[in-house]
Write a structure and sequence with these properties.
The protein is α+β, with helices and mostly antiparallel strands. It contains five helices and eight strands. The strands form two sheets. It has a five-stranded antiparallel β-sheet, with helices on both faces. The longest helix is centred in the first third of the chain and has 18 residues. The radius of gyration is 15 Å and the shape is globular. 32% of the residues are buried.
Length: 179
Amino acid sequence: MSTAPQIFTQRLCLRAHCEQDHSEAIKIWQHPEVYRYITGSALSPQEVWMRLLRYGGLWDMLDYGYWALEERATGKYIGQLGFADFKRGLVGFDGHYPEAGWVLHPDAAGKGYATEGMQAACDWLDQQAGRDKSFCIISEDNARSVSVAKKLGYRYILDTLFGEEKTAVYFRERSVRLV
């Protein structure tokens, strides 16, 4: 059983992932508006499944991780968000802090869900001992995610390479709240 705490916002529920999330998560990771900024190509059902398993394992190993994100009004699974340590080895940045990330189905985009959900996640992280800093990496072309990061108090610090792609690193310190 995952140790992910359940968090409620006005419109969202952040909860542990479960097997039933797989089919909706596939729809997200096979949508061009999602994968073009993250993986570059659609994920197979197996790759999505491995991702969901990884999310559960993060909580057990690190005491933080990714939540499933659902709309409270409908119970619909709309994405995933949270923190990880993917040991990326980014050039020019010592990324031993929790790495924030968010992925929502495009149908849920533009409603403020990413900001609302990640603000709840950041508030939770701010309450954890020794977790006073976090970072995120964002493709320079992903203007929506850059906007979300800035609303959450993440500030650009440098460009680096993620694989062969140029990506920006944003950094946040505890209790920075601009929303």
